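We close this part of the discussion by returning to an individual protein. In the encoding step, the backbone of a single protein was reduced to a row of integers, each denoting a local shape. The sequence in question and its structure tokens are set out directly beneath this paragraph.
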Amino acid sequence: MNAVSEQTVLAMAAPEAAVVVKALLQVLPAHCVLSRTEDTRPYECDGLSLYRSVPMAVVLPETEAQVQAVLIKCKKLKVPVVARGAGTGLSGGAMPHAQGVLLGLAKFNRIKHIDPEAAIAVVEPGVRNLAVSEAVSSFGLYYAPDPSSQIACSIGGNVAENSGGVHCLKYGLTVHNVLKVRMVSMSGEIIELGSLAPDSAGPELLSVFVGSEGMLGVVTEVTLRLTPKPAVARVIMASFDDVEKAGQAVAQIIAAGIIPAGLEMMDKQATQMVEPFVKAGYDTEAAAILLCESDGTVDEVADEIIRMQQVFEKAGATRLQVSQTEAERLRFWAGRKNAFPAAGRVSPDYYCMDGTIPRRQLGRVLNAIQDMEKQFNMRCANVFHAGDGNLHPLILFDSNFPDEVRRAEDFGAAILELCVEVGGTITGEHGVGMEKINQMCVQFSREELDAFTAVKRAFDPDGLLNPEKVIPTLRRCAEYGKMHVHGGALAFPELPRF
């Protein structure tokens, strides 16, 4: 039953690079195929540079027909394919395969159609997240999902990882803002998932595809739902002298029936890292700050701001600031948006971990991370999508020292397992890359992983699309020591255990 899921593409007889390149040049112009090491090395990693692998070849198709042709050739030759968007993913989910082809979608960067009356936009996967909002701004619309790297990340990446962001509590994740996806399967078949209508015929596979990490097909077109710009938006910046109080304030805001347009939290380490970089006016002495936004009509916002202030005062806020102008609101958010580049200014490297927890557990988790800093002897700055419970611990380290790399990885693994322990999940908006695959063994039972594998086989029987990612093999779970054993019966006893 699990033979296919356990078979790795590495074990297959991969053809020589020259054979693969020759086949690719039969269906693509020469300028779309990169095979020299000096040309392929820039593609060896995503935003997470800790995990690298130089691909056999890189292809940069310009049309859907070329994508089809590439996939058909690779399927015939049994060559693995890894699809890549903007190369900004903060996980190892799109790390190239050393014996495979990296399929870059950077040239698919056109906004094909905007319908302001229907509030939809049809775009190619290489379009930047923020470019959509810029293109529809004149119509009084924007694209709501705004992950931290929205300046650079692509819609294709959003679809792959089901990204959220600041606005996701009120306006939803990517899956709630995508109406239709056009994709090419590994066999070269063009498939459309979803519909412009409220419902579509056949199985509802759009929600399966969004968040599938490029394992089921290659996106060539996405139809997005757009959101009307609010008449006004204001943000409260609340300071707290204790992270647990800040965590309780998050839960109390939701309990009060308030659905903020944005709710973010930064701990002291993060604010002290960001403030010299952005000069956003943050309280750098506070143990934690909350950024809580209200949007809507003028009267709605005025009333909601008062209610938010009351909740924060009751929760023990030591300082409250309310944005008085649009420029001030954007400045408050600028610090949060620049947390990642700020980390790069104070540390040679940083490891952005990503997990989701119940909001009520925030205080416990942040206190535990502070203890882990001492355990692993490493600094960690915490940035938190408080609205949807999505943690972004930034572990600061220096990759020039192998021991620090190992400790950073162990620190990240400990955070993920803590997320599972408190009732959360190992991922939020960054997907499951190579840095999280062991923790999939912690999160899910063998039965659940088998169900994932069955979906994968239905779309990609040979396991050629983004292989060895997301779904861990039985052997990996056994090696990690986290394999689920039911009723004392050890599944697949013939597999070696370590």
